[in-house]
Design goal:
There is one protein chain. The protein has helices spanning about 5, 25-30, 45-60, 80-85, 90-95, 105-120, 135-150, 170-175, 195-200, 220-230, 265, 325-360, 380-385, 390-400, 425-445, 450-455, 465-470; strands at about 125-130, 160, 180-185, 205-210, 235-240, 260, 280-285, 295-300, 305, 375-380, 405, 415-420. The protein has about 475 residues and is α/β, with parallel strands linked by helices. The chain has 3 domains: about 5-60, no CATH class; about 80-335, Type I PLP-dependent aspartate aminotransferase-like (Major domain) (Aspartate Aminotransferase, domain 2), CATH 3.40.640.10; about 345-470, Aspartate Aminotransferase, domain 1, CATH 3.90.1150.10. A hairpin with an 8-residue loop joins β11 (about 405) and β12. It is globular, with a radius of gyration of 25 Å. The structure holds pyridoxal-5'-phosphate. The site of pyridoxal-5'-phosphate (PLP) has 14 residues, from α7.
Length: about 475
């Protein structure tokens, strides 16, 4: 497939503008240091060429609108189209964050109401939507923890991170200047309470817990964990990226969590996975509020306003108020579902995961057998003995029309296949996936070459993933000149 630059022909265009009605003087008055030395080189294509280019490109890739995408931990649910309609309303797209607040009351009202809904969902009293990703929320949450302890004159340097947590947790810990210390899992895949008790001391600032953890298991000893951490004055942090399992069932604030980050783009439906705009709201307990990034949207008699009066704030962690369009989508999603609908989201996410788990446990090893939450982890170790790797299984799924699950994660399961179906899939789709997985299990025995050669139906075969990530080659039209 040719790139847009390759199909470009001078003079082709995809726009029609009315004749210019300003004189050239305005442009002439611009100091020359602000002017381009040569025209910006953009591809020149007609509208139909541009549309076909992007449509073809989208078909060469896998996405949720093309097929089932059970990528564990990523919550690749279908994103309702009505979200796009509301986010595209001119009242939202044609405003600027520097406008006087009196002229953007609707946008502020939406943010305020979304805050109130998240307060209800998390059971924590204050929310900021400034972080724009889960990992960004984690880093911000840890910065809040640091500010909180500093304000009390305490110098705590360690963050405890269970080995079943998401990989971003130890990374955020290091990035925010803490030392991360691992807590191992017990034989049931849950936090080892004895080890936690030993390691939890006055030097520990935070325990970062992913619940359900990345094995898809609910940390049932949460009350005990809450006690152990708070007895030593620490803070309990919930990696709430997996909130898809908890909506309307559990409020993290009631379970003893002090800081929670949310992944709006996962649980509350914004297309994600390509590095596009995300939302990582942060909910905190009342005595952590003074440190939040500013501003916070508030309401008074005269209307909504942005409150910057937080002298102890950690400052800004993103321009303006985060990714506003993601907030519009999350708000639409929540309003469409309502309280009952939200609870059904989580119930169905859990039912779908357990249906797949029970249907596949005879064909693949299931290391943790208890009830799963929104996702579960299989191991390809049986197939490994036949010379077939988990990577081969993942690649073969592409040939059979499915996106692969998350593989080789969590690290504590060898040959891991982490499967998260989400609630938006029908039983027919789940059954088709089960049939594909069973076919693969059978091929591993009878036709292993089929797995080792996969994929054969995709636009590219197996890629050099390391070099693709580390040695990015971006073509410019002027490279040839
Ligand atoms: C996805 C995820 C994150 C990171 O979120 P990003 O938006 O990708 O930064 C953190 N923790 C868990 C459990 C996740 O699933």
């Amino acid at each position: 497939m040719k790139t847009l630059f390759e199909i470009s022909k001078p003079g082709r265009k995809a726009y029609t503008l009315p004749p210019k009605d300003v004189s050239g003087e305005l442009l002439e008055s611009l100091p020359s240091r602000f002017k381009r030395k040569r025209p910006l080189r953009l591809p020149e294509v007609s509208e139909v060429d541009a549309v076909r280019y992007w449509t073809n490109l989208s078909q060469r890739n896998f996405h949720i609108e093309k097929g089932f995408y059970p990528l564990g931990s990523c919550t690749m649910k279908y994103n309702p189209k009505i979200n796009e309609e509301t986010a595209a309303l001119p009242g939202f797209t044609e405003i600027h964050p520097l406008q006087p607040v009196s002229t953007v009351q609707g946008a502020l009202e939406l943010m305020y109401e979304l805050e109130q809904i998240m307060v209800e969902i998390t059971g924590l009293p204050v929310v900021s939507f400034q972080p724009v990703a889960g990992a960004h929320g984690e880093t911000t949450g840890l910065m809040l923890a640091r500010a909180y302890f500093e304000s009390k004159g305490e110098n705590r340097g360690t963050v405890l991170v269970p080995d079943s947590s998401h990989g971003t947790n130890p990374a955020s810990t290091t990035l925010s200047g803490f030392k991360s210390e691992k807590i191992s899992s017990n034989e049931r895949g849950l936090v080892n309470i004895d080890e936690l008790e030993k390691k939890m001391d006055e030097n520990v600032a935070v325990l970062m817990l992913t619940n359900p953890n990345t094995l898809g298991l609910f940390e049932s000893e949460i009350k005990r964990i809450d006690e152990i951490v708070h007895k030593k004055g620490g803070l309990l942090y919930l990696d709430g990226a997996n909130l898809n399992a908890l909506l309307g069932i559990i409020k993290p604030g009631n379970e003893g969590f002090d800081i929670v980050h949310l992944n709006l783009h996962k649980t509350f439906s914004t297309p994600h996975g390509g590095g596009g705009p995300g939302g990582g709201g942060l909910a905190v307990r009342a005595d952590i509020e003074p440190f939040l990034p500013v501003p916070i949207v508030k309401k008074r008699d005269t209307g909504y306003y942005l409150d910057y009066d937080y002298p102890q704030s950690i400052g800004k962690i993103h321009s303006f108020y985060g990714n506003f369009n993601v907030l519009v989508k999350a708000y639409t999603y929540l309003k469409m579902l309502g309280c009952k609908g939200l609870k059904r989201v989580s119930e169905n996410a859990i039912i779908n995961a357990n249906y797949l788990k029970e249907s596949l446990k005879d064909d693949f090893e299931l290391p943790y057998k208890q009830l799963a939450m929104h996702e579960f982890v299989l191991s390809g170790s049986k197939q490994k003995k036949l010379g077939v790797k988990t990577l081969d299984i993942a690649k073969r799924l592409l040939d059979l029309g499915f996106h692969a699950p998350t593989v080789y994660f969590p690290l504590i399961v060898p040959e891991a296949l982490m499967i998260e179906p989400t609630e938006t899939e029908s039983k027919d789709t789940l059954d088709a996936f089960i049939a594909a997985m069973k076919k693969i299990a059978e091929e591993a025995v009878n036709e292993p070459e089929k797995l080792k050669n996969a994929p054969v139906t995709t636009p590219v075969r197996r890629l050099d993933e390391i070099n693709a990530a580390r040695m990015l080659k971006v073509k410019h039209s002027w490279d040839k000149e």
